[in-house]
Amino acid sequence: MFNRKYGIREHVSLLTLLPLMLFSIAMSMAFIHEQSDDMDEGIVSSARLIARQLAANSEYAIFSHNQSFLQNIAASALQEPDVRAVLITDQGGNVIALAGKLPASILHSLADRNTQAVHRSDPPVRGLLVLANRSTPIFDDGNSMLAYQPILSTQIALDNLENEAEAQQIGAVIIALSREQVNQRKQQLLLATLLSIVTFLILTLYVIYRASRKITHPIRQLSIAIQSIGSGHLDTRISQQSGISELCTLTEGVNQMAAQLQQERTLLQHRIDEATEQLRNMAFYDTLTLLPNRRLLNDRLAQALSNSRRSGHYGAVMFIDLDNFKPLNDQFGHAVGDLLLIEAAHRISSCLRETDTVARFGGDEFVVMLSELNADHALSFDQAFTVAEKIRTTLAKTYHLIHQPQGQPEARIEHHCTSSIGIVLFQSHDTNPEHVLSMADMAMYQAKESGRNLIRFHPKDTEEL
To answer: Is 364 one of the annotated active-site residues of the chain?
Structure first.
């Protein structure tokens, strides 16, 4: 629970509601305490006021022993709220008027005081006599209360008219009041206060929810978008608008960042593709002539052998070696020799179909692969020879090379270079590219040994004619 991560809305709600809740509870407790004290003071004041009025009205009736009048004013006091019983005693503590019924809680409390009371026939009255002699006039057990008020009489002596009259107690008024209504009002106040707090907190929570949603919803959208961008979805954009300027700035910044990252990734991917293509070219193509190299030639030859087995058509491999290349290198250097190799590659390519392959095998050696010639050996032989003759004738033409060494004037070089070509035909029984190339190389050496600038087929092909 303590390690759990909470969202902004939860934090805002907690940080807002907690102080409000504590403040509301504190204010409500203070309010309830103040109102309870006011209710208690109100019932006490009311009891004392009633007791004083009864005491004032009872003075003359006690002197005249008018018990009927005392009973009537005691009964009239029962009309007051919360008054349950009224007792009027004389100077000796004798009950001379009693109206109402004492609450049960008072009777139980008085039962514990009977041992201190004067022995009379009525236990509650003996308890009340004890209460009447107490220094405090109020007895309260939380459910009911007693208000005690002495009945005083002022006697003026004829020989002491100038002095103040001395007050003498001639009786007492005891009023029993029930706190039931006060306690009910306290409970109602408590319930109303709690209901007000709960209502206030619910309304506050709703307001906080509505207000925080304007902040948290855009932030949540930002968080989702950033996670999506972090996962590689750089085309993610945030369209959510907010009335908060900081969030608008942040949203615009995230969109700009995503656009910039997407642009940089596109550029990077383009560079990667270019580098991959360059690596591929370096792996499968000759960097000087841009012709396929040995690796790519082997792949294509293997594929041509497989196609030949399915179709039954012949294919041909020509091994070409330039006859007069080394003297050019020795006299003018490798730069001029490279120019001749590039030109020779162009001339050979111009003699072939798009489906054929010409590769630089190494140095001044080239290999030409003709695929899908014919199913007949003799016709395929003639087709291969025709192409080879065209290549030999083209390569034998004079080369006009233009070379300009660094810091020197341009030089025009004419050179004659012939070629020796060895040819081998292959079909379904030829399954090894290396073996086919070896046979073509063997035929090429036969052409060189025979005087160069010649075309020779492998002996197996001439034997089949």
So the answer is: yes
